[in-house]
From TrEMBL:
The lineage of its organism: Eukaryota, Metazoa, Chordata, Craniata, Vertebrata. It comes from Geococcyx californianus (Greater roadrunner). It holds the Pfam family POP1_N. The gene is Pop1. This is POP1 protein. Signal peptide: none annotated. GO terms for biological process: tRNA 5'-leader removal. GO terms for cellular component: nucleolar ribonuclease P complex; ribonuclease MRP complex.
């Protein structure tokens, strides 16, 4: 019995691919997607994973503390150079509709006695970003939801405006529920799932041919056309990909859209931040129709 038991417990021989096969782009994307089923990665995840201890919070995989003693380097960058932080895990809700209707309903969840509101002139023009505390509708100074930051899209002369509200992922569900209530927004009857970005094996082969011009031809994948295409993950750590992400009000025409992980957000700290932006970003030329 012991001999039979040992035979059954004998492990099968490992069938893992060689490192060259594992490091192919299509295999890497499939492996990364598999590891993001529970916790979503930021765009800068690979860079942080090599240098930070990662933690899993709010549905994301975030860098917590550096593995090396880099506190002096960070302080030096903040005081003399430029330090960049990835804040893409913050959630973004986009409100679209008439300016008067937006301001009328948003006034119910904030108060002038607490400081800045959505009607501040410098923020309403879209030149500056504002920050305030949100409360449940008509419940100030009780039932505070939490702090948020907002920015208006500069107007183009029409009465329709765009407003982006940024909040911590732990506050998203409560604030989203309150916004849908005051604007009387509801989701569509049918769940809308956007088409995933598919990278086929044929496209990968075409890219390899283009990149390998003048070089040694690479061997074709053994799986060939039977290989499963790689799908890009849809959604974020705070949103189920099978849930709707747009809510429309039939009464007011206001549209609430969840733009989390669609609009990336970075913070630059230091005296050279403006110089870095001017060297990195190039102003687009204005085109009038």
């Amino acid at each position: 019995k012991q001999a039979e038991k040992a035979v059954h417990q004998k492990k099968e021989q490992s069938k893992t691919k060689c490192r060259k096969a594992r490091r192919r782009h299509i295999n890497l994307v499939a492996e990364f997607n598999r590891r993001q089923r529970k916790n979503i990665w930021l765009e800068t995840h690979i860079w942080h994973a090599k240098r930070f201890r990662m933690i899993k919070k709010w549905g994301y995989c975030l860098g917590d503390s550096p593995t090396e003693k880099s506190y002096r380097a960070c302080y030096r960058a903040m005081t003399k150079h430029c330090l960049l932080q990835d804040l893409s895990y913050y959630c973004c809700l986009e409100l679209t509709g008439k300016e008067t209707e937006l301001l009328k309903q948003l006034a119910r969840i904030c108060n002038l006695d607490a400081g800045l509101t959505f009607e501040e002139a410098c923020c309403l023009s879209g030149r500056f970003e504002g920050s305030l505390n949100l409360y449940r509708a008509d419940r100030y100074p009780e039932d505070m939801l939490g702090p948020v930051t907002f920015i208006w899209k500069p107007g183009d002369g029409s009465e329709n405006r765009h407003l982006w509200i940024w909040m911590h992922p732990s506050l998203k569900q409560d604030i989203l529920r309150e916004l849908k209530a005051i604007f009387q927004c509801s989701g569509p009857d049918e769940i809308h799932i956007p088409e995933p970005v598919v990278t086929s094996v044929q496209e990968e082969k075409q890219m390899d041919v283009v990149l390998s011009l003048g070089k040694k031809r690479k061997k074709e994948d053994k799986e060939g056309e039977k290989a499963v295409p790689v799908k890009k993950i849809i959604g974020d750590g705070t949103r189920d990909p099978f849930q709707c992400y747009t809510w429309i009000s039939q009464a007011t025409g206001v549209v609430i859209s969840d733009r989390t992980m669609e609009i990336l957000r970075y913070r630059l700290i230091g005296p050279l931040s403006h110089s870095v932006l001017t060297e990195t970003l190039k102003a687009a030329s204005l085109q009038t129709v």
